């Protein structure tokens, strides 16, 4: 398990995941102009997820032994768990924890950034074992 997390494959996953997270984060700011924070977090996650799938298939895991449709379906299932983590952490921080700590500036940005980082490890294991095996 530890060896998997320090492999070059995991480092490529972190790099491509970082790019997808930037897409996720940036698009949330854009979407937030037209919708509320909670909805924007969810829609931005989908935007980042599409980016992540393309980059992971191309640069991290390769095509594997299954079809693109099957990989995409399993990728979606793994990400349902990840989006739940991202949304819950983002809302918990933005609505409760950060205000309780006296944070008043950039609350949504801080909350969403932390929320996006949370599912890195669970997603890697899910995609390695199921999405792109």
From TrEMBL:
Record domain GtrA/DPMS transmembrane: where: 12-132
Keyword Lipoprotein part of the UniProt annotation: no
Keywords: Membrane, Transmembrane, Transmembrane helix
GO biological process: polysaccharide biosynthetic process
Compartment(s) where it occurs, according to its Swiss-Prot or TrEMBL record: Membrane
Gene Ontology cellular component list: membrane
TM segment ranges: 12-31, 37-60, 72-94, 106-126
Chief localisation class: membrane
Membrane topology value: Multi-pass membrane protein
Protein name listed in UniProt: GtrA family protein
